[in-house]
Write a structure and sequence with these properties.
- The chain is mostly beta strands.
- It contains no helices and 5 strands.
- The protein has one domain (9-57, 72-81).
- The chain has a 5-stranded mixed β-barrel with strand order 1-2-3-5-4.
- Strand 4 and strand 5 form a beta hairpin.
Amino acid sequence: MQPEPVSGRGTVWAATVNHQSWFAALPPPYVIGIIELVEQPGLRLLSNVVGCDPADVRPGMAVGVEFERVDEDVWLPVFRAVV
């Protein structure tokens, strides 16, 4: 087993909209999605889906990865709808 680059493309496998305020940096509502990468069916990541109305996020929706900086040395992957 070894690391391999991937495209960053995937599909929403499942999602839920969170309405609870857990911390100020992520105000609700926001989407918590399970994203399946196109390179390996069955490989799924838990992340946020950003850049669209939470009500529009659906299973099968095409998404692409972006990285949001949350601290000087910390970047988190999030996924945005791909048209």
